[in-house]
Amino acid sequence: MEPVTALISTTVGYIANTIGSSKSFKKFTEDFSSATIDWIRTIFLTDDEKPKEVLIDLEKAPSDKLNIQAAENAIAKAIRNEPNLEEKLRELVKEIREKSGDTTKKTNNQTIIGDENIGIQDVSGSTININAKDKLYILPSLTP
Length: 144
What we know:
By secondary structure, this protein is mainly alpha-helical.
């Protein structure tokens, strides 16, 4: 399962690209079903539909790293406070990928050489080869 942080980055990246393409956050929300998007509107808009500071900053400079991080943090905090939003985020990212044509699964074959502790992530659907102390370990795909 894809980490929540990656899902958040995908979502904010899509929002920033939409805003950067001379479109508005409103245009972004119109592209999706209300069931998928309503929860995220509350993160970026007040009850009377006015943009919150995080959205104002993102609209001013959608490629600014700090603005992107602030938007990602706003979504992460919302999910921390309401864990059920994670499933809605997954649905939104699925729709984003369908709209952007990115529906392929990632495949990353990795070969790891060394005897240090090494973290491995984002290897869904991949083969992992570990060469440690003259022994080769081949781990099967981690795809569910």
